[in-house]
């Protein structure tokens, strides 16, 4: 895992007069890359092409091939140069195929294989990769093609890639902090953040900066300086003819269970490859328990398992985790998480370059710090809920869908009147969500700011095309109405909160401590299996979630271990803010963007201190203030 940075200058910029010409210098690249040092503390490298039109910078967290052969940026024999963040888990199979094609290798790592794969197959190489990645390749061209930059991001969006493209300059980086931008707030991105608590798709908080979306590639033509992006991978459609009714024959379910078991074992096997200490983050949930079960089967050595305990808390899951670890003979480490509060924001604040309103970023940040004391790489359970139908919200939505047929229209109209109630009042958000339909409840039910609250929060509402654009974008991810409802809900969760919230949180929290997190459930083969092969009734039926996963767990996990749905990293944000008397919010008011109405924020604080639930909204504003302040300082 690493931090990457690159810059390119157009021909026009390089042909300017000596007085105005902005050349790419190794020193400038080193300074920008230095801002990413927390992502890669083991090595640093800079490369600049001879005519100074392109330069790359790299900060390395050494995980595979710890020798100098793994140094980046990495140049290949055909003039290609690679700047890579991530892991290619199937690199050994790719290496064997490339060796048969005549490609020589000097080292033993995956970066060299990725570089050779691009040299052999061009941009189509991404379809062969099983991994988490964000990378750029300088392509010198040839055969009638001019030089270009090729960029790619993994199918789930585990690794970030930001870019800033002007008429004469193109920059990319793992984090916004390394890019030169004016610091002006993009009103559309801000509106999405205030609605969702995260910034989705290709949007970024700052004008001119974009994210390369998950499962996308981009090519910058260094001749005309045009940028072309394309999606290289789609989620498969639901099983043919799947309507969500009925139960498959028992023999079919047994075959699905065996297929799931095989795919998970191989995904874990690939992700156990490491030249540095590695372990499994073990909670009391299904996802991590099954990961440990698979790891114990495919590893020749006992697995190091790590559980974070919350002493004297009802959310503590260390007892159940201990049962699972003992069953598989793992070396189990229980890491007590000391009581904390908003004081941790002192450490977190400097790292916020794009805001994330998910307050579970705090415990993720603390857990990563504890885990990094023992290992450099950890396997986690991210993605299981979205793939297999694990969220209780899915059950709520499906139950609401069944009730929708007899719900009187006047009741739905009355629900819309909830928008006139004060923010944070119990039932307000749920009432508002009802009028948009059962499956769209998740898009309109928010603990952040709905369209009416956003209108109040702005000093002057920005001239957006639609006041409800974020909600409509989220609802659009449900896809075609012909599929079974649970398939649509899982699709929406995978393409929205998983990619742009949870995986962003995991990347930021872990890389703040140079900890590499790997997610076996996000193996592309498991993604295809979950979306294209599992019938709706074996995801959710009635109040039973993850039915196929639970069936596998009943056979693999210890019979005496209760495995309910994992609690998740929830924290008492409402209580923390009241204990602090919202002083953190007040202290960051001056750092909020000018477009935010401070008077209305004070009203939110007042309502929260009177018992209304505005904690998520106020935390999101704190994070927004951090990002805006850090951008101004940069």
Question: Can you summarize this structure?
Answer:
This protein has 634 residues and is an alpha+beta fold. Helices cover 39% and strands 14% of the residues. The strands form three sheets. The chain has a six-stranded antiparallel beta sheet. Strands 4-5-6-7-11-12 form a six-stranded antiparallel beta sheet. The chain has a five-stranded parallel beta sheet with strand order 15-14-13-16-17, sandwiched between helices.
Q: What portion of residues is helical?
A: 25-40%
Mean pLDDT: 90
Strand content: 5-15%
Q: What Rg is obtained from the alpha carbons, in whole angstroms?
A: 25 Å
Strand order of the largest sheet: 2-3-1-9-8-10
CATH architecture term of the largest domain: 4-Layer Sandwich
Total number of beta strands:
17
Number of domains: 3
> Could you describe the largest sheet, including whether it forms a barrel?
6 strands, antiparallel
CATH topology (fold) name of the largest domain: Glutamine Phosphoribosylpyrophosphate, subunit 1, domain 1
Give the termini distance in whole angstroms: 24 Å
Structural class category: alpha+beta
Shape: globular
Question: What CATH first level of the largest domain would be assigned?
Answer: Alpha Beta
Which parts are unreliable, with pLDDT below 50 for 5 consecutive residues or more? 17-21
CATH superfamily of the largest domain: Aminohydrolase, N-terminal nucleophile (Ntn) domain
Secondary structure tally, helices = 24
